[in-house]
Each structure stands twice: as C-alpha cells, then as structure tokens.
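Section handout 9: paired folding examples.
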Amino acid sequence: MIPGSWRALIWIGLSELCALSLWFSASVIAPELIIIWNLSSNSEGWLSASVPIGFVIGSLFISYFGIADRYNSRKVFAASAFLGAILNSLLILADQAFLGILLRIFTGITLAGVYPIAVKILSQWFPIKRGLAIGILIAALTIGSSLPHFLVMFFSEFNWKIVIIFSSFLALIAAMIVQWLLEDAPETSKNLTPFSFKLIKKVITNKPVMLANFGYFGHMWELYAMWTWLPAFLTASFTSYSSEIPIKFIAFSSFISIGIAGAIGCVVGGIISDKIGRSNLTIISMFISAICSVFIGFTFGQSIWLTLILSIIWGMSVISDSAQFSAAVSEVAEIEYVGTALTFQMCIGFLITIFSINLIPIIQSFVGWGWVFSLLAIGPILGIVSMVKYKNFELDKA
C-alpha cells in the first residue's frame, strides 16, 4: 500500500506533467503558425513569450487576491487546467496572430493556477523533507513542458491541429485527476503569508533573500530561452550535418534533451541538495550549464551524437537547481513575507525569460548558431556569484 503522501505526489506529478504540455504546445508547431498567421520568423519568440507574460499576470492576480487561500487548492488547480485546455483548443480556430497570441497569454494565466498551486498542495503533503518531492514535481513539469516535442514524433505527418487537441486533452486529464483522484492533505492550513505590495520593500532589503533571487534570475535568463530555442538549434545543426535526418529523430532528440534529461536532473538535484546544501547544488548546476551554453555552438553541423550528448548534459544541468532557489528564499525570509518573496521571485524570473527568449533570434541573425547560446551563459555566471555570497548566510543559519 502506497503511503498517502507518496500517493498524492504521484497524482500531483502526473497531473502537472499533463497540464504543462500546454506551455510549448504552440511553440513546436510555430513554423505552421507563422505561415498561417503570416508572421516573420522573429515573431516566433513572441509566440513563446506570450505564455510567460500570461503566467506573470496570472500569478500576481492569484497571489494578490489570495485565490489559493480563499478556495480549495485542488479545485483551483482543476479549474485552471480545465480553462487552459479550453483556451488552448481554441487556437485551432484562430486565423490571425493577434487572436492566437492573445489566447496564448490567457493560457499562461491559467497555468499560474497550475504550477504554483501544485507546489502549495505538495508542501501540504510534505511539511518536511521536501527536497526529493519538489525535485520530482519539477521533473514532471519538465517532461510536461517538453511533451509537445514527443507528440510531434507521432503527429508530424498529420495536421498541426492534432498536437493542439492532444495537449488540450492531456490538460483535461490533469483536471480530472486533481478533482476526483487527488485527496486533500490531512492538514490544509491557511497560508498566513499572502502577497502584498507593501511588503516588497522588506523583500528587497533582505540581503540573503535577494541573493537567492539574483541566483534565480540568472537561472531563468538561461532556462526558458534554452527550452525554446534548443529544438531549432538541433534542427539546423542536424540538417546541416545531413539533409536526410528525419524530423521524428530531431523531435525525439529535443524531448530527450529537455524532458527526460531534465527530469533526471531535477530528481538528482533534489536528492543532492538535501545532502550538500542548496547553494552548493545551484553553483555546480549553473557552472555546468554555463559551460554547455558556450560550447554547444562549437558542435553545430558536427557529429550528431556529439551535439546530442552535450545537449543532454545541458538539459540535465539547466533545470536541476530550479526548485532550490524557492526553497532557499523560504528558509531565509521572515514568515510574514515569505509569500510575497516567492511571488516576487517567480514574477521577475518569468519576466526575464521574455527578454532572453526574444533576444536569441535577433542575436542569431548576426552571429549564427555557433555563438548565440553563449549569451545565455551570462545568467548562470551572475547567478553563481550571487549564490557564492548567499552560501555565507546559509552557513550562518546552519
């Protein structure tokens, strides 16, 4: 018999995996949407950035009005996943860019009721020893985000609308799992630290909190830009090496690098962080990911297996530290503004992704694929500097 907390983790992780397939559902079919909506190739970045924009808006709205505290968290998750499925499916009816991007923004808003709420539900089931549990949850998020690449393997020869319909169907499954299979945690205590603009000053003036935040900001500068543009890089690199590479192999390579490798990195990172400390884990992860972002460009057009191995290592390291930045803030922030500190961290982090996602195609047009990802190394390098300084506070706390 599986204990209640681990049974809950299975349902939460599975629902997160299914619901987060909405995040990149439009990005993987961007070439088709660019033609249908008559967009320039550079507009693909805004197609991907529209979801983070919506996510920031949604997370601020949910936090400011205390939605997750006023209503049952499970029902908030289920309703958000259901609305996200509906909005995502409406994309097949959109015949112009404005409407399509607007739908993506609204989809991002609904996802703000999925990812953060899942973290809250999980924290209720795991009041202690959350490292591995959070790692597994982020692993589910990672696989879910990359799932559209997996769908392309099977539906690449069919109409692009099938990818949208299938990802919407998965989000509906997520809503049903949380609504009818996931139980409420034994102690669903109210969150006494809601978001407040009045408390932001305390967040900003708390040095260890901001050092952890700066580490997270550097991490986010790299993460979603890598997730968005690595598939395009692999496509260009593989086809440059051989024009006979099938699209299914490229899609599978993207899924392995982002989803499977990322999931493994999340779980391993969660386990290691509990043993060596959050700052040490984040420093190691960002160091490895920074090296990968610089050197992967040198493999462009070279051996496919060399490129794929480096992209897998990058996929593992770029996400393995993600959960630890929020955990760090929760450990050093005063209880009265933990909620505000975490919301501030997440909102600024996702705002940063909008800039890095859109900067990549602009820089790529000047320097090519060989050097463009070096731009992303700036984030983890600055993040390492912050987390080295944060480590002193972590040692003092210990």
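Moving on to protein 2 of 2.
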Amino acid sequence: MDWYPLRLSCPARPLVFGGRAIARTLGKAGLPDWAVGETWEVSDVDGRAAEVLSGPLAGTPLRQLVARWPEELVGDGWSGDRFPLLTKFIDAAGPLPVHVHADDAAARRLEGEPNGKTEAWHVLHAAPGATALCGVRPGVDREALHRALLDQDFDRALRRVPVRPGETFYVPGGTVHSFGPATLVYEIEQTSDVQQHAMRWAMEDGSTLPDEQWRANVEALLDQVRYDARPDPVPGLDIPVDDGVRRIVLCAGPHFALERWRVGGTAPMRHSFRTAQVLSNLGGPVVVRSGSAAEPLGPAQTLLLPAALGAVEIDGPADVLLGHLPDLRRDVLAPLLAAGHGPRAIAALGEGLADAGI
C-alpha cells in the first residue's frame, strides 16, 4: 500500500451543552449553523466510525483499514478490532453532564465492552474562573456520593478544580467528571462510548428523564466509580527540538500520549514516528508533507498519519497537536529525562510512567 496522510469524515454532534466556538474561535470550516457540542475528528466507535474522504482510499471505512493493514496503519506488532484512538473538539458553552466512563475492567464486567474510556482534555480556551468537577472528594464513600447525586448537589461530593488554557487533565476511566461552561477543549481517549450520567436530563436535547431511568443511571454510575481518581491539571513538559520549534508533552499513559508542537518561521517541524499519529491543527493553514505527499490542513482540521509513513514535516508558523500510541519508555520517558525533567514531573503526566522505568 502506498500510504499518505488520511483525511477522514468528521461528524458534528448537536448536544445540549454546545455552542459556536469550534467554528468561531478555532476557525473550523464546514460546520452546520446550529450549536455544536462535539466534532469527532478520528473515530472508530460503533455507529460513528469514520471513513476516508480523499485519495485512493476514499470511501473506505477506518475499520476496514484496521482489519486489512493493522500494523501498517497502527504500528508494528499491533492487532485489534478497532482503531484505538478517539479524538474530539468539545465546546462546553454550557456545563457537561456529571458523568463517568468505565475503566477497562468495569467496561468488560458491566457493559460487555472490550475496553473502557480513559481520556484527557487539553484546554484550548476557558473563561476566567472556569472550573471542572474531577474526582470524588477525599472521605466521600458510595453512600455519601449517592445522596449528593440524588440531591444534584455535586460540589458536596466532587472536587472542583480551576481550568486554565494550555493545561491538560489526564482522566482515568472511573473518574466522575464534568467541565464547562465557557470551556473549549481537545479530547483524546480510548475508542469507546461507554458512559453513565447523573443528570435528570438527556445530553442530546435536554429533555427530562423519567424518574425510574434517572435513578437507574445513578446506580449504574456508582458501580463504575474509582474513588481514588483525583486528576489535577498539568502544564506539560518541554523538549528542546530546533530553532523556534517547541515540543510539549501534555500527557501520557498506556492508552495514548498527546503532544503540542509550536513552530516559528526558522526551522520546520520534523517528526519521526513508529505508530499512527493523529494530527490536529490549532493554528492557521499549513501543509503537511510526508514522503512525496503534501496535504493542506486548515484550522481545526485533522489528519490521520499511518505508522507506515514514518515521518512528517511542517513549515512554520504552525501550532499542532499530535496524539499517538506511545511506547512509554522510548517515546515519552527517555526524551523527557534527556531534557532534564525529573521523575515526579514526568509521573504527573498520566499513568504507567513509573512502570516504564522512572
């Protein structure tokens, strides 16, 4: 297969908390006129799987690529039924519902799914004073959390954390959470749509849920909570690259890593890789070059870079995100230690880094 950067279909979801910031603030073209809660930049979730829009593979579902070329697409030694990363822009013009995504064990036990959903939020814009609910307060047990959820008094049981642009939350499956209003994030996560909500209204349209259904949702949420998960935001860690080129590792764990690259006008961004990369543009238009391929990428647009490409180059000015499947020791730990960062700062980026050899 003669691989090239893949442009995928990217559905927009009209969720009740949405607004117009993905188009107006980020500059994403082609969105509908109605309030958009999320755009699914790369997805292989059942019922919302992407397909290729351009080039020789146009019209091919992402799942078909995974089945036919798992190692060339995702990376040497990889196998699986679905592309393992899901990425989104989320406009929390209003507050998201208080909810939880199961971790892997709970998803298999309670949802009949192969994996749960650990995720991370990179905050792009947030109003002064913006906050997130993220994790259960110390000392709160199941009974106390249950009472707070039934009373819809979330601050009584959940931690409220400041949200600032440029920071990143690594949120393990099982963490009760919400963010918004006036918050715009880029989210990377495991490929899954498992979730349980605590709200009395439906996320899709704000309609009131029947009391019996709402109480059942709360019980299901309680069965999936990790009471020890209390994520705090981190600013990311810099790795020197080249004149005017900044590489910032925002978060990392066994399921994904996320980096932000800022490129001035002197040297280009040159990045080599061994696993699939999800490249999302936060700045003005750029051209993404890989081998003989050159693909334009507009504001808030995304390309999937197959592992077989091996390298990418972008001239500045540029501001892009790269999500990928890391070898934690090779791709995260070693370069951060070489850049002079200490074990404690590195461990704060996510999960599994101590096991990688810190």
